[in-house]
Amino acid sequence: MSGLIGLDWGTSSLRAYWLDGAGEIRETRTRAWGIRHLPDGGFDAALTDITAGWPRLPRLACGMVGSRQGWLEVPYMDVPADTAQLGSAVRSLRTKDGLDVHIVPGLRNPQGPDVMRGEETQLLGALALRPALIPDSSWILPGTHSKWARVRDGAVADFCTLMTGELFALLRQHSILCAGSGDAAVDHDAFARGVIAARDSGSAGAFSRLFSARALMLDGALAPDAVPEYLSGLLIGEELRSSLATNRFRHDAPLQLIGDAVLCARYRLAAFHFDLDLAEPLVDAAAHGLWQIACDIGLVSANSSTTSKESSSC
Amino acid sequence: MSGLIGLDWGTSSLRAYWLDGAGEIRETRTRAWGIRHLPDGGFDAALTDITAGWPRLPRLACGMVGSRQGWLEVPYMDVPADTAQLGSAVRSLRTKDGLDVHIVPGLRNPQGPDVMRGEETQLLGALALRPALIPDSSWILPGTHSKWARVRDGAVADFCTLMTGELFALLRQHSILCAGSGDAAVDHDAFARGVIAARDSGSAGAFSRLFSARALMLDGALAPDAVPEYLSGLLIGEELRSSLATNRFRHDAPLQLIGDAVLCARYRLAAFHFDLDLAEPLVDAAAHGLWQIACDIGLVSANSSTTSKESSSC
């Protein structure tokens, strides 16, 4: 049997994909075993469990599993980097079951400086799914540490990290701004007000408007329970405002989205207030990126890819 | 005996001043009894303890003690507001010892919106100490919630809150950025690098550079223990960058500082990288502001102010 086991192994979660010989996803499993939350037995035990019952296939991983705190450190490569370049820097380790795990490097951007691990593989997978975007495209990967990326000629050429998700979590859990807020409820109006406040903050930026959440609440103009949604809008709005202020990312064509559907829907709502076009998000981009790299380095044989889905073939 | 007991009563601390009949400070006491950390017996017990042994004098308070969570809510006044206007809105309550405590209102800025409690009194006290600044001056009051304020014709005309101190505390204690950092040590070089990164972040703003703390650390270009100082510089630098971007605050004359000496010294270091002139900080401004308001509303008699220090007289 041919195929690949792809592992998207981050800080807080582990996702495993079983891909067939044509690069199609046959099964997906998710565990809360990020590299900082491993089960007893560590990396080996996590891998054995999440692949239980699957065939013995080549295994390729991306994400924080390749960091200094991961299973095997794979040094960052500098941008620009394409599939072949990332493939050439893959490193391998022999696991307790006698097979190898191969790990994709992360990327480093000297401008910033900045780093990513895992998103480079998602971007390459997304390009395989949408080859028209290979020459020049701009991407948003929302999350704890959101990434904005520019692709040119199939290579990740530039990127920037915005800590939107982590800042929101810190403010939600610990700030005086949310001291009187109960459980978050979806509130499109409060979210939109936050987005607009960020958009209209000009070059001062939305962090100069953060305290308005408290002043509006004291004014009776924002319900205490609506403060988290207002802050979510303010922070996502600031991510859009600040990234668009740089001209590093094109927005004369739709910006591409990769990630969780609920979070991506928030970004699309926010983008509406910026007259910005965000494409429908892509899912399972990491699996497709791992497949591309596996083909490139010969982990899976090219003649096995008798696929019906050209975009995902080797 | 004439004189005043002035109380600067905030969220996390209480400071009491005994002023003589000429408005000079005779004694100052500080307790950790902010309105959220009161001793057994609450406000009455805190007041009795901190004024123990002092003469029975009129008592005037400012700060969060006048908030909804305070001893008596004194509604915010809208800017612009001067000493007479703040004095006219003072409210009073009878305490268990049979005397009154009078409480100064906070200020609300419809632009923002924004609010302050306590800083308005510090500003009026500072103007009494530096009357040349009464016509038009700009002020920074660094802290958990830093305030930038514009004074015109002796009235607080405009202000803005930057949550610099609270954001730094959140990042220091909870963010992944500081996960590998030990106890903070003063590191002028790391601080300056943060300030410069913020200054050079342009209209994108320094929050788009936050993750550089991690990338620099991974690069070996920033020691893990230096990350907090880098972040302190980045956040104070962003406060300067974003406030100067608005043109709401004049900087063709030195900006005035009120507050804690150590924190103000950080702001002066940061200002150096912006070619910005920050004056020596004023201390005990709240005491002088409370004295001004007490004179205005007749809590202390004008003929008692046979002061040698004209600037602080009624």
From TrEMBL, chains A, B:
Q: Where are the transmembrane segments?
A: none
Q: What is this protein called?
A: 2-dehydro-3-deoxygalactonokinase
Q: Name one Pfam family in it.
A: DGOK
